[in-house]
Design brief:
The chain has about 180 residues and is mainly alpha-helical. It has 5 helices and 4 strands. It folds into 2 domains: about 70 residues, no CATH class; about 110 residues, no CATH class. Helix 1 packs antiparallel against helix 2, helix 3 runs antiparallel to helix 4 and helix 4 crosses helix 5. It is elongated, with a radius of gyration of 28 Å. About 5% of the residues are buried.
Amino acid sequence: MKVKIGNYPGRLICNIHTNHMHKKYGYCGWDENVSHEDYVLEAIEDGVQSMYNVLNWLWLDRRTQKIKVRIDKSDTWSMDHTLAHVIHPMLVQLKATNHGYPSGLTEKKWDDIMDEMIWAFEQKLRDDWEGDYYEYRELGLEEDKGDSMFGLKLVWEDPEGSAAHQKRMTAGFKLFGKYYENLWD
């Protein structure tokens, strides 16, 4: 698999007045002490932005985001695992930079949902998570190998724990599907 996704196309924006206000007053809003100089800078910014708008319309607004995706046959052998390599770090970054949450949820609830989705994909990336719920030991030379598998004998297992782990993973994947259209910042 090879995926290359370019940046979203940008637009030209004039910030002469905005930068001046921020430098002079420490913010980008108006103050009752606005001087004639501020009005002049705002007029200049409006004029420059008008020219930028023409350039945006002629050139930049016609551009599209460049996306190239190549999928190899081997990528679909275990597609759930392959996609987890992309989805997990994206969820981690989204959680770190998120500026909101879906309507009908609280910030805390969305944070918990994000944690469950991240955990589920993290577990999908662990090829050996099931190993947390059983233990094998090697059989000695003198032991009967009749009921063993590859010279190993099962000495401990926790099928309830394994089932609960799988159930939690599945719930995390269902949350991913349910909130798929809310995964943006």
